[in-house]
Amino acid sequence: MLMTSPRLKPHKTNIVPMTNSAPPSPFRSALDHMTPNVAAELLRYGKSRPDVISLAQGEGESPTPDFIQKAAMKALEEGKTFYAPALGLPELRQEIANYTAKIYGRDIPTSRIFVTSSGTNAINLTLHSILNEGDDIVAVTPIWKNLIGICEVVNANIIEVCMSLQNNRWTLDLDALFDAVTPKTRAIMIVSPNNPTGWVMSETEIKAVMEFARSRGIWIVADEIYARCQFGKKHAPSFLDVAVPDDLLFVINSFSKSWAMTGWRLGWIIGPQMAEDKIRDLALYQNMGPPCFTQYGGIAALRYGEDFIQGQMALWHTNRDIVSQRLAHMSRITFPIPDATFYAFFKVDGVTNSMQFAREMIDEVGLSLAPGSSFGSRCEGFLRLCYGVSTPRLHDALDRLERLCG
Ligand SMILES: Cc1ncc(COP(=O)(O)O)c(C=O)c1O
Hints:
This protein is of the alpha/beta class. The chain has helices at 29-32, 38-47, 66-77, 90-104, 119-130, 145-154, 174-179, 203-216, 275-286, 294-304, 306-328, 354-365, 391-405, and strands spanning 53-54, 113-116, 136-141, 157-162, 164-166, 169-171, 185-191, 219-223, 249-254, 267-270, 333-334, 343-348, 367-368, 370-371, 382-386.
């Protein structure tokens, strides 16, 4: 309806006003104002070129192990092809509860476990369930871009608290984190073990942040999808270790990395009991829950996957040491050695535009790495290399890197 002031009479005219401004966007303004995902753009660029080794994406080379594949194939053969419950099959929710008891020593009822179509979907559901447009959310950076992107979709304000390099180790300043929280803050978002840095939050830090959030009544969104990727540990310190059942805490997990299931799109959330209905409501309208037969693969992964995880960790450990040794001899590179994950996040002397440098690297030596600028506003000059690949492939990639940065 056309609203006019009572003193101004609307009048009709045939004159169409001349204007230079662009027509209004047919899309939500939040989508028009999203920051570009340069890592995704770089990945596409690398794939469009011949003979490029890509270590730009967070996955290894091994396909999903047989015992997981067979469980999903058996489910298909048995006709498990129908709609499944929006929060996951009861059998998988129970298996996640068993796994959490076995690995973390925590008893979580299945009503607090929500199966999702990937870790990304889990982040989406949690953030959509708590963020209003205009809310502040504090993000510890460097951070995987998608967590920021989803906040942008919701149109929340992202307040970055950047870790710094102290004695060549990534360090979180807890005072800076707490100072960033204002009455408008709805949540703190942390990825530990961290993509891209491999930093692991200590138990003391986790406890301090949990107590702080509890005292302020704000949420913690803890992305722990690399929980099983800390070298020499069964699992990295977790918010689950210090939380009580009603804490405003979402812990995100995924089958993608530890069980080599990136293509399956399967993950889960552990949250408070009161979130069950809200996450179900959202899941119903997002995709009606994860696919049915893949969840049987998830059950097998959790039940029989420990040897596979150990094998992967052994490879990543060897590869981390190779990367550390070889980067130490490349004069332009500063590399803080990661305690976890399969990422090397390093600074290249003289690089001021990591996206441009990453493109040049593809063009000149046929190596695709993720540009640092994708991971936070203070990550310019860095690159991320995924070393979760076979050792010969890694050496080939490092030879190429050496030609540019040696
Ligand atoms: C921190 C973090 N969270 C979530 C994801 C996404 O996991 P998924 O493949 O389950 O969507 C990734 C993928 O790289 C990640 O690094």
